[in-house]
Design a protein that fits this description.
Order of helices and strands: HHEEEEEHHEEEEEEEEEEEEHE
Mean pLDDT: 93
Structural class: mainly beta
CATH superfamily: Porin
CATH topology: Porin
CATH class: Mainly Beta
Shape: globular
Helix content: under 10%
Strand content: over 45%
Number of domains: 1
Low-confidence stretches: 1-21
Length: 436
């Protein structure tokens, strides 16, 4: 951790003079003093439908004719067209009032079918459980399991996310899958798969944070120290992750998750991961990002740039569904992790409300994966066309059509990696949201 950065952030926090009604740190980690209920039950449900053409892997490749993993609907990878309850979360939050409204808590459980419950092999999973102590001016202390102060796509509340699926950048660099090995050595029997739930942009640890305002500007900081081992389990290797976050927002007005403003932010995550099987050893995992968001009237825009160094998700062997046997029946498709490579990516996002209840959206995202390895490098670019119809403030339907492209720049168009890349399908998504 950079001590100078921590000192700067902590020093700035001490000039706190109060806070506006909203930002992600305060929305998720604090309650309004003197007016919050002891226990407020809340939650949301997200049924959805997703479809691709189901294009198979091309002939002449090791798994030719079999299902292509990116063309299957997650999390089961068994069909290219499926209905699913993506998320169904129920929680309770509040304060110790009238005992002490300087103490608040946040609790949330997942009942849906996704990478948290499917890979964690649980029907219900705890996603958030934290306590915040608000006794020190300029330095609130949050302890437990909660969202880490990192990328905007991960940190923001998922029920106000403007799309159905994450960008390739966020999905592959930030939505961490934990495995026992790197998967590079092709196994003859069992595949190298996740050993538990996805990280879900969360960690267990302690965070010092706060927000202060200067005229129309709101400034926020967070410093977190966590296990770096995802959710619902303790540390596995005595190594810890550190997180640094800063945002400055020019607030135009409003409140809540859709408050109007212009926000600039930057963040850093740094830690170590330990593998115990293939590629056993300790490896650095570092992520950095910066971005901007804008919301005013009918217009909405966002952009973010991110870099990754070490422990990068690298898909599956031959693009096959993990656990599949190759056509020669000699090896099993496994999930792979790039332990020492680098990646970077960005997205540009724009939305416009053509009607009071109808917003049209477009997003362009790029992921440059494995930029240090000529034969391993892959480039993903996606254009997402979207529409959101708001029945009311708590219910909406989202439609997305993703035009997806992939390229292996180290190979010719007729070689296997690009033959596989050319078979990547576009994806159609429809999701209904109801908040209660």
């Amino acid at each position: 951790m950079n001590i100078k950065k921590i000192a700067l952030l902590t020093g700035l926090s001490l000039i706190s003079t109060g806070t506006y009604a909203a930002n992600w740190l305060s929305l998720q980690g604090t309650e309004k003093p003197g007016s919050s209920a002891r226990a407020k039950v809340w939650g949301f449900i997200q049924p959805e439908y997703q479809k691709t053409d189901g294009t198979k892997l091309p002939a002449g490749t090791p798994f030719g004719g079999q299902n292509m993993s990116p063309n299957m609907i997650k999390p089961d990878n068994t069909s290219n067209e499926s209905f699913n309850i993506r998320r169904a979360r129920v929680g309770v939050r509040g304060t110790g009032f009238p005992l002490d409204d300087n103490v608040n808590y946040f609790f949330l459980a997942e009942f849906g079918h996704n990478g948290i419950t499917k890979l964690g092999k649980t029907g219900v999973s705890l996603t958030d459980a934290s306590i915040t102590l608000n006794h020190i001016s300029g330095a609130r202390i949050r302890v437990g399991q909660f969202k880490t102060p990192t990328s905007e796509e991960g940190l923001q509340a998922i029920h106000v996310f403007n799309y159905v699926n994450f960008t390739s950048m966020t999905d592959q660099m930030m939505l961490e899958r934990f495995t026992d090995g790197d998967g590079i050595a092709a196994p003859t029997t069992n595949a190298n798969g996740p050993n538990g739930s996805v990280g879900a942009f969360r960690d267990q640890g302690i965070q010092v944070f706060d927000t202060f305002k200067v005229n129309d500007w709101e400034h926020s900081y967070a410093v977190m120290y966590g296990n770096g081992n995802g959710i619902n389990r303790s540390d596995s290797d005595n190594n810890k992750d550190t997180y640094l976050y800063w945002s400055s927002e020019l607030v135009y007005g409003g409140k809540g998750a859709r408050r109007e403003g212009l926000k600039m932010f930057a963040w850093n995550q740094d830690g170590t991961r330990t593998l115990t099987t293939s590629g056993a050893g300790e490896y650095d995992r570092t992520r950095n990002g910066l971005g901007i968001t804008f919301l005013k009237g009918k217009y909405r825009a966002a952009a973010e740039y991110m870099t990754a160094d070490g422990m990068i998700f690298n898909g599956s062997d031959g693009g096959a569904v993990p656990g599949s046997r190759n056509n020669a029946d000699t090896t099993t498709a496994t999930l792979n992790v790039l332990t020492d490579d680098k990646s970077d990516g960005y997205y540009l996002d724009f939305g416009y409300k053509v009607l009071p209840k109808l917003e049209l959206d477009i997003r362009y995202d790029v992921l440059n994966r494995a930029t240090e390895t000529v034969n391993g490098e892959r480039v993903f670019d996606t254009v997402t066309l979207g529409a959101q119809y708001f029945f009311n403030k708590k219910t909406r339907v989202t439609f997305n059509y993703e035009i997806r492209n992939q390229d292996a720049p180290g190979f010719t168009d007729t070689q296997g990696p690009n033959l596989i890349a050319d078979n990547l399908d576009d994806r159609l998504s429809l999701q209904l949201l109801a908040i209660f």
